[in-house]
Amino acid sequence: MFADNTLTPKEAVRLCALGSIARAPQRYSELAGAVRHFISRVAGPQIDLMGTSIELLRYEGLVQAVDGTGAGMEDDAILAITEAGRVELITLLTARLRAGSDLSKLIVALKMRFMDLLPANQQRAQADLMIETVEGELARLIDLRGAFAGDGDGCHLTDWLDHDIELLETRLTWLEEFSARL
Description:
182 residues, 3 strands, mainly alpha
């Protein structure tokens, strides 16, 4: 963890993997795909997040194979969480949150602060770029929301996604109106 007891990107991936198999054992390939899908829909495709190996969890004793040879990736074993994995999951789930660590938010604020220094056509181009970015974020979250529709596992993710989708739709409307004013 970081010095302030907040999660690193690697630990966020661990939380996703451990939480996924804590709900139900999964094949190695299914778990890897589920983690990749979830992380990329929430945070966008990021190499530093995708580089963490699920196989490392097995070596650390946080998950174990319940069928196959136990090799994990090689035989696409079904993996289940161990007691040590449950302890780690609780530790990760109860970690502190780091407020305002999103660099993109700072960059957007800086663009909005100084955009008036650009010629009008470049201001419109920047507004269009921001619209395109929000549309991409919105598409990722809507896709993720669709993957959990009717899931019925009792998680609160769909409520959170509905909230974030609503915020992005509001931001998109504002940006489109802003662009029209330029």
